[in-house]
Design brief:
With about 400 residues, the protein is mainly alpha-helical. Helix content is about 80%, strand content about 0%.
């Protein structure tokens, strides 16, 4: 039952008051309410409660005044009328629900939660339970209590078991509360109910990417494999740049480097002016130890990026150059990235390489001298009466 249907049901109940209540603007107020003329209904019921003294009439009058104010966009003004009705008729469930709604629409989430918490929600009809849980969930979210907000939204999802959107929104709330595994399960269930929503699939892939980064061992490959399957379905339905980039990212995270390189090349063919695909292609080549192949896409990425992205690319370029023993270029890249430790490490390796080269040169000189000495010894041995030792 919608809010409007509920309000109209209350009107129907109120018309049973009899002739004594149906005076002083009562009928006019009901007619205006039913016609959606809430301004007139407010005026009529306001006059009605001002002129009546009978408790039963006042109960109904304040109920309809509150409803008219709420429906007429005057939620904050309706609060006092609902409270007055509840003073006259304590425990009225319908007015408690609507008072919670009035607090919610007035931007008073704490009061909304407090009001709705006084209800035995499970005893309400399913439609009213959904309304209460939705309002309370949204109010908890406004208060920053994502755990309670997710719990209430989960109850809505269970009550609306065939509603894929509600299940997905439940997953999003779980995600906001850092309940990643539960969020992924909710996303997967929503997609199993409606697999046509590309944005839902992207959200699931990104959640799996986050999980993959924090997963260790053989389970990591399984998480990224699941993400790759979903990302492939996105590409199959629409091979757009963003979908290809997402697929390549999960392939890179799952160490499927050859496939990632191919995917990033496809992405670049769709959009060559975005640094991400070039950078990731360089990373894929670097992971394959094809360091010379990695340079070109990384340098292209540098021409397209700026700020933190540029420093990130320079840092990886420093790694790629160092692996090729291009020490000066690697040091320069690390310094531009602000990675002094990386630059120092390359300088140390450069010095070690220089020392090794000098040591190798020294050893070659000694070996050459030794060969010369042996040759002189042989020649002296061939001379009659000569000494066996060459001169020192």
């Amino acid at each position: 039952m919608t809010n409007r249907q509920t309000a109209l049901a209350l009107v129907t109940a109120c018309t049973l008051l009899g002739a004594s209540s149906a005076s002083a603007g009562w009928e006019e107020g009901v007619a205006a309410f039913r016609a959606g003329n809430y301004a007139q209904a407010i005026a009529e019921f306001q006059q009605f409660v001002e002129e009546r003294t009978e408790e039963e009439a006042l109960q109904k009058g304040y109920q309809m005044l509150a409803q008219s104010l709420l429906r007429g966009g005057k939620a904050k003004e309706s609060i006092a009328a609902f409270q007055k009705h509840l003073e006259l008729k304590p425990g009225d469930i319908g007015s408690q629900v609507f008072l919670g709604q009035a607090y919610y629409k007035s931007g008073m989430p704490r009061e909304c939660v407090a009001t709705l918490n006084r209800l035995n929600v499970g005893s309400l009809p399913a439609g009213h339970q959904i309304q209460v849980y939705q309002m309370r969930s949204a109010s908890y979210a406004r208060l920053g209590n994502t755990r309670a907000a997710a719990a209430d939204l989960g109850k809505v999802a269970d009550l609306k078991s065939d509603d894929a959107k509600t299940r997905f929104e439940y997953g999003r709330m779980l995600h906001n509360d850092a309940q990643l595994d539960a969020a992924i399960r909710a996303y997967e269930r929503a997609i199993s109910m409606d697999g046509s929503n590309a944005e839902w699939k992207k959200t699931l892939v990104n959640a799996l990417k986050i999980k993959g980064r924090s997963t260790q061992g053989s389970a990591k490959a399984g998480v990224y494999g699941k993400a790759e399957n979903v990302a492939r379905s996105l590409v199959a339905s629409n091979a757009a740049y963003d979908n290809l980039l997402l697929l390549g990212e999960v392939q890179l995270g799952g160490k499927n480097y050859d496939a990632a390189a191919s995917t990033f090349q496809q992405a670049i063919s769709k959009r060559a002016n975005d640094w991400h695909a070039h950078f990731y292609l360089g990373q894929a080549y670097g992971s394959l130890e094809r360091f010379s192949d990695a340079e070109a896409p990384l340098n292209t990425a540098l021409t397209l990026a700026s700020g933190d992205a540029e420093r990130q690319i320079q840092d990886y370029l420093g790694f790629v150059l160092s692996k090729q023993n291009k020490y000066d270029l690697a040091i320069s890249a690390y310094e531009r990235a602000g990675n002094s430790a990386g630059a120092a490490r390359v300088r140390e390796n450069q010095q070690i390489a220089q020392d090794n080269r000098e040591a190798d040169e020294h050893n070659r000189n000694i070996e050459e001298l030794q060969r010369t000495r042996e040759e002189l010894r042989r020649q002296l041995e061939e001379l009659p009466g000569a000494a066996n030792e060459p001169p020192r």
